[in-house]
Amino acid sequence: MKRIIAAATLVVAVGLIVYFTTLTPSPPKAIEQPRRAPAAQAKKEDPQAVAVLEKLGARLQRDDKLPGKPIVAVVLHGPITDADLILLQGLPFLDTLQLQGTAITDTGLTHLAEVTSLRELMLDGAAITDSGLVSLGKLTGLATLRLGRTRIGDAGLASLTRLTKLQSLNLAGTKVTGKGLEGLTSLRELDLRETALTDAGLTSLVVLKQLERLDLEGTAVTDAGMKTLAGLTSLRYLNLTDTKVTDVGLNDLAAVPLFALNLTRLKITGETAARFGDLRELYLRETAATDDVVGKLSGIKYLRVLDLSFTKVGNKGMRQMEGMESLKVLDLWKTEITDAGLNSLEKLTRLEKLKLVI
User: Fold this and answer.
1) What 3-state DSSP class applies to 162?
2) How many CB atoms lie within 10 A of CB 347?
3) In sequence order, what are the residues at sequence separation of 6 or more whose Cβ sits closer than 8 angstroms to the Cβ of residue 167?
4) Is the predicted pLDDT of residue 41 greater than 50, yes or no?
5) Fold that domain 259-358 belongs to in CATH
6) Taking 80 as the threshold, does the pLDDT of residue 357 lie above it?
7) Is the dihedral of CA 315, 317, 322, 328 positive or negative?
8) Domain range list for the chain
9) What pLDDT shows up at residue 31?
10) How far, in Å, CA of 133 to CA of 246, rounded?
11) What distance in Å separates the CA atoms of residue 121 and residue 133, rounded to the nearest whole number?
């Protein structure tokens, strides 16, 4: 701790920037899926298909713990054609496929429909549409599906209702409004960043009782939509960055036992966040948070990550922070704290990472 304070004080003397870490919300937890053991009479890998994939620059991962060390994961980028996906049918134990940033179309998805061993599929940025999702509906073993920045909309979601094992779905940057999501009741993680989602679309989420992580960044949801989310009692991570939610809407969520809450760039004081007593991570970047708000946040017993960057928090707020005994990561970038306020850091004995400029 003394080293951190000494470094921060040095910033004042020489006009440099102390930059220990850049805070971002914790990434969604990977959904762990046990590897399938090969069936007794399973098809063997096609060595010619493997050779061609290697020439295409594919990154191949084998599972050394399975008999024959089969290929279980493939990453393909760049100028991959729809026809190239036929090669994947020669990998009978393939369960993870990443095709992000390719020009794959709906035609290519018809070839993927035959790779029924797949459990994780990443198609971010592909030129696929709602029609192509009909083919994906045949991959009933899928647990993770990424469709961010594709051309799909609400109509295609109906095809995904056949995926009863689907737990993680990324629709960021698509045209979906939320309609049709009610059929995906097995979901635990849902990314709707920068979509056409509105408060009306949020009503489709009411039945997603297993949902733990929800990203609504950059959508048009408002306080009215928060009343809908209040029924999702399994929710633990919520990102409301750049939405239209205010302190009023947050009050309706107070009964939800959230562990991580991102309120970046909202028109709020952050005072309501103090009601979320289970929080481990809180992001109040570019909000109207003040020293008095920090005092109220000090009652969150298990808070480990706090982002107050670009706020009016000053030295008084630092003193109010002394009770945050669990704090490990603190972002004070572009606040009103001076070198005099740094002495309060001595009380934060578990602090590991600090970002600030004085």
Assistant:
1) helix
2) 16
3) 31, 143, 144, 186, 187, 188, 189
4) no
5) 3.80.10
6) no
7) negative
8) 259-358
9) 52
10) 36
11) 12
As a whole number of Å, the end-to-end CA separation of the chain is: 18
The Cα–Cα gap between 59 and 91 comes to: 14
* Contact criterion met (CB below 8 Å) for 167 and 143: yes
pLDDT digits (tens, 9 = 90+) for 288-331: 999 999 999 999 999 999 999 999 999 999 999 988 999 999 99
Q: Which residues on adjacent β-strands are paired with residue 226?
A: none
Strand partners, 62: 71
pLDDT in tens, 55-82: 999 999 999 999 999 999 999 998 899 9
The predicted pLDDT at position 98 comes to 98
| DSSP for 174-229, written as a single string | S---STTGGG-TT-SEEE-TTSS--HHHHGGGGG-TT--EEE-TTS--BHHHHHHH
Q: Is the pLDDT of residue 97 over 80?
A: yes
Type of residue numbered 245 = V
Instruction: Count CB-CB contacts under 10 A for residue 32.
Output: 6
Q: Does the structure show a pLDDT above 60 at 11?
A: no
Q: Is residue 231 over pLDDT 50?
A: yes
Query: pLDDT value at position 101?
Result: 83
Contacts of 289 (CB under 8 A, 6+ apart): 269, 270, 308, 311, 312, 313
